[in-house]
Each structure stands twice: as structure tokens, then as C-alpha cells.
Design goal:
heterodimer, A: alpha/beta, 2 domains, seven-stranded mixed sheet, 14 helices, about 40% helix, B: alpha+beta, about 50% helix
Chain lengths: ~400, ~140
């Protein structure tokens, strides 16, 4: 193990645990990443020393917490190269970010028979909010199909984009297949037909550097907990001009300017979309996670995960009866597979017993699983702290599992 | 016919032969492979138990005051668990099934399968079997 990797691993307390008396091997990073001690300590520090409600009090702690919270907003803006920190809305996570756009942009700008274009490889959280919106408004949901390689059919995408398309919602990286979609090209094509584009970046932000201005996306959503940060915090990036035109999401404190029983005027961006007391500690933890990623180097993280992916493909290919799902030319650190004649659920149970945490089942992307005509996937997904030795253990454990079940 | 408790004890004794989890699971897998075959006509959507990562079909019949179960699954571990439940429940009176305390599951070390995140349907299977027993009791015995 290289020295810097050893240091990285040591920063994550949970990785030193033993499960079933075996060293814990965590390969379920696409579900949530582990947290480095500095992120955990940031939450602890906040509640130990800084806890107070932000944007309200004139007292010292409130002002201190408010500045720390707003500093993270600037940090996030810088992290994804947003034009202004007003374009950064804090949410509970990617799911809420998508729902916010569906509820606000959707109700203001979508009419009966307008079209929303999504893809076959979306996570349920980038399908269901649009279905619900279509039910409310009479808009029509269109789905861009994918190819057996796990890539989107670019030809179908161009055909499905019409002057009726109001909104395109697409994942940057597929959580089930690891496919990196050519979002920049897709956004440019969608803009030609005047469609607005939302990118689900939950799986992308942890692995590659995202530049929203260069992508020219209208909305970009991601979660802190998949990028070494805490759960319950996420981000919605939106272009200022669009966010200005959208009605508020939820009503409550913080999002108002003045309230009387006759009428309420709403606060300006970004507060218009942040009703109620926010998850301050979560946001501060996100700030710390961004620092961790920047100091580790996003390029380093991406390169390391790619090395692991290549190694895993090579190593696992030797296993008899292994069937890989998704072989896109451009993919991130996700490897999904099945073993011939074995149910993914059985494999998951035994792999867990062998000390390996990975994900089995429909991975919240049932249409992808259905596309490959299997009951579920077995998915290993990598983060910066994973090692080649862990993949060796994974390969051995798969062999053992296979021998038990076949 | 042995009681549910006696059959549970029998299973506890069998599993105690395997201190290692690996052997326990091997035994469970064997149980899965040996599950009495379900009549294909019962492998229909209405017999499917929801809330599982694997498909489980469960059928129940009432004959001369006793309930008889058959089941199948596309996952072999789930099938092994279904087989265990069938062993203890099949051929019992509805009342016995409704009031059964299945402590053997915990004692053989399979209690982790009772957690909802396992979503293997053990909990749903037990619930469904008790529901059948209750339905038969209401229909034929009241």
C-alpha cells in the first residue's frame, strides 16, 4: 500500500473496524461514502461550541454560525464553479433537490402535453418526481433508451428532443452502471430546442471535478453524504436567472421578507428556497468534506478509483460464470455483475458474511435491472480509500460464494 | 405429528452441529435445494410475497383441520428459510400456527434475517403463513 493511501485510510475511523472477526471491506460507496475524522469532528465541534440558529440572532454565536454556514455556500459555489453563491441552495440531498425543481419550476413552466425527457438509466429519485409532476400537470414523460453497453443511445436522445421538450433530467454518472454520460453535449443539444436541463450529479461530484458553467447546465444536484460528508445535506445549483423566476418551494421562516395575514413577500435568493431552520451542522460538515477532497486532490481521487476499476475488471473477469453489466467506454468506479445461475441476493448474503459490504438488488434503478433481464445486480463501488488488496479479497470471496451456491 | 415447538427444537439440534457460519449456510442452502416442490400452478402473482429482494411464492391448503404449505423462491437461501418454516408449520392446526413462538430462528443464529433491511421476506413469510392460518380458522372453524 502506498504511503499516501495509508494516510488516507487512517483518516477514516470506521475502516479499522472488524466485521464477523474479519477486516471490514467497504465497497458500497455509491450508496454512501465513509466519513473522515475531520468531518465527524466538524459536526461535534459545531454542537459543542457553536450551536445556535443562523440568520436570526444578533448574538455572537448566531453571527459566528451564520458566517460559517454562508462561507460553505461560497465554498460550494467555488467547488463547482457557479457564477455566484446565490445559485447554491442547500437541501436535504439530491432527492430533495430534484423534487424542489419538479415542484417549483415544474408548476410554473410546465403545461399539459409539454414533455419531460429523462433516460432509462436514472435513479428512482430522478424518475418518480417527474412522474408525479406529469400526473399533476398533464405533461408527458419521455424516456431515452440505453444500449446493451450501458451507454445512452445518442441518436434516440436527439430524436426525442423536440420543441415540446421543456425539461431534460439526466444523470451525470449512472449509479448502477458507472456510465459517465456525455452531459455537456446533451445540454448543448437540449438548449438548441430551448429545453432546460437538470443534471443528477450525486454519483459524479465524489469522483470528478464538476464545472457547472462549462457544462452550461441549468440545474445540478448532489448530496454531501456520497462525497465524504454527512447525511441529510445536499445542494441544488440553479442558474440565477431561472431561480429568480421560480416560485418558493416550502413556506416558513427564513424564506420570507415580510409577513402579514394579508400577504407575504418572499426573501431573495438563495433564502427563498430554504424555509425553516437548516441543517447547519450538515452544511459545515459538507464544507469540511470539500476541503478533504480538495486537499486529497479530485484528480488523484478519480485516477485512484479508475486504477481500482481497471484492476477489478481484470481480476473479476477470471471468475467463471461472471457476467458484467455495463461496459461503457467512459465509466467511473462502479462494477456491477451477476454470477451465472446464482441469485444476487444469495451472493450478497454470503459476501457480507465474508466481511464484504456491497450492494445487491435493484439499486434504486429498477429500469436498468429490468433492461438486463435479471432479478438484481451485485455492485461494488469504490472510493479513494479502497485498495487493490481489498479487490483481491473481493475476488476470493466471490469465488468462495460461487462454490457454495453453485 | 410433532408440535411446532418440538420441530423447532429438532432444527436447533441440527444447526448446533455447525458452529461455523459457513457450514450453517451450507446447510441452509441444502435445505433450499431440497424444498418440497410447489405445484407450478401456485407460482402465480397472487401467491407472491412482496417486500423481498427475491421472489417468494407461498401456497396454503386446509385439509381435515390442518394447514399445509408449499413455497418456492428464485434465491436459494430464501428457499432454505422457507423450507424451515414449512417444516415447522405444515400439518399443524391453525391455532397452533397463529400462536407459535418461533424462537428457534434466533437460536440457530438466523435472527439477522429478521431485520427489515435484509428484505428476504422471512418476516413477511411468517406473517403470511399466520394470516393463512387465521383465514382458515375463520372460514372453517368458527
Amino acid at each position: 500500500m502506498k504511503k499516501d493511501l495509508k494516510n488516507i485510510r487512517e483518516a477514516f475511523p470506521v475502516l479499522s473496524r472488524e466485521i464477523y472477526k474479519k477486516p471490514f471491506i467497504y465497497l458500497d460507496n455509491a450508496a454512501t461514502s465513509q466519513k473522515p475524522l475531520r468531518v465527524i469532528n466538524r459536526l461535534k465541534d459545531y454542537y459543542s461550541n457553536e450551536n445556535s440558529n443562523i440568520h436570526r440572532g444578533v448574538h455572537f454565536l448566531s453571527q459566528e454560525a451564520t458566517s460559517a454556514y454562508e462561507e460553505v455556500r461560497r465554498q460550494v459555489a467555488h467547488f463547482i464553479n457557479a457564477a455566484s453563491s446565490k445559485e447554491i441552495i442547500f437541501t436535504k440531498g439530491t432527492t430533495e433537490s430534484v423534487n424542489l425543481v419538479a415542484a417549483t419550476f415544474g408548476s410554473e413552466f410546465l403545461d399539459r402535453n409539454d414533455e419531460i425527457l429523462i433516460t432509462q438509466m436514472e435513479h428512482h429519485s430522478n424518475i418518480v418526481p417527474w412522474q408525479m409532476l406529469c400526473n399533476r400537470t398533464g405533461a408527458i414523460l419521455k424516456v431515452c433508451p440505453m444500449l446493451p453497453s450501458g451507454e445512452l443511445s445518442e441518436e434516440s436522445f436527439r430524436q426525442l428532443l423536440t420543441e415540446k421538450t421543456r425539461l431534460v433530467a439526466v444523470t451525470h454518472i449512472s449509479n448502477a452502471l458507472g456510465t459517465v454520460n456525455p452531459v455537456k453535449k446533451m445540454i448543448a443539444a437540449a438548449h438548441q430546442t430551448k429545453a432546460v436541463v437538470l443534471v443528477d450529479g450525486a454519483q459524479a461530484v465524489p469522483h470528478l471535478s464538476v464545472n457547472v458553467q462549462e457544462l452550461d447546465c441549468d440545474f445540478y444536484c448532489f448530496s454531501a453524504h456520497k462525497m465524504y460528508g454527512p447525511m441529510g445535506t445536499g445542494v441544488l445549483y440553479g442558474k440565477e436567472s431561472l431561480l429568480e423566476k421560480m416560485p418558493p418551494y416550502q413556506g416558513g421562516g427564513e424564506m420570507i421578507s415580510t409577513v402579514t395575514f394579508d400577504a407575504t413577500t418572499f426573501n431573495e435568493l438563495p433564502f427563498k428556497f430554504e424555509a425553516g431552520t437548516p441543517n447547519v451542522s450538515g452544511v459545515l460538515g459538507l464544507g469540511e468534506a470539500i476541503k478533504f477532497m480538495n486537499e486529497t486532490g479530485i484528480d488523484f481521487i478519480g485516477r485512484h478509483e479508475h486504477t481500482l476499476l481497471d484492476y477489478a475488471i481484470k481480476k473479476l473477469s477470471r471468475i467463471e460464470g461472471i457476467i458484467f453489466h455495463g461496459q461503457a467506454a467512459d465509466r467511473a468506479g462502479v462494477i456491477s455483475f451477476n454470477l451465472k445461475g446464482i441469485h444476487s441476493y444469495d451472493a450478497g448474503i454470503l459476501l457480507d458474511k465474508l466481511g464484504i459490504a456491497l450492494r445487491t438488488g435493484h439499486l434504486c434503478a429498477q429500469p436498468v435491472i429490468d433492461f438486463y433481464h435479471v432479478p438484481g445486480f451485485i455492485r461494488a463501488s469504490f472510493a479513494v480509500y479502497n485498495t487493490q488488496e481489498e479487490i483481491d479479497h473481493l475476488a476470493e470471496a466471490i469465488e468462495k460464494t460461487r462454490n457454495m451456491l453453485i | 405429528m410433532k408440535s411446532i415447538e418440538e420441530k423447532g427444537q429438532e432444527i436447533i439440534a441440527e444447526f448446533s452441529l455447525f458452529p461455523d457460519w459457513l457450514d450453517k449456510y451450507n446447510y441452509l442452502i441444502e435445505m433450499g435445494k431440497d424444498i418440497p416442490a410447489i405445484d407450478p400452478k401456485f407460482k402465480v402473482k397472487s401467491n407472491l410475497i412482496t417486500g423481498c429482494q427475491s421472489n417468494v411464492w407461498l401456497n396454503a391448503e386446509y385439509k381435515n383441520g390442518l394447514v399445509w404449505f408449499t413455497a418456492d423462491s428464485d434465491a436459494v437461501i430464501t428457499k432454505g428459510i422457507a423450507h424451515l418454516l414449512i417444516r415447522v408449520f405444515s400439518g399443524q392446526k391453525p391455532d397452533e400456527i397463529i400462536n407459535a413462538d418461533l424462537h428457534f430462528i434466533e437460536e440457530i443464529g438466523l435472527n439477522e434475517h429478521l431485520s427489515p433491511t435484509r428484505s428476504n421476506g422471512l418476516v413477511s413469510m411468517i406473517k403470511q403463513m399466520k394470516m393463512y392460518a387465521l383465514a382458515f380458522k375463520t372460514k372453517y372453524e368458527s
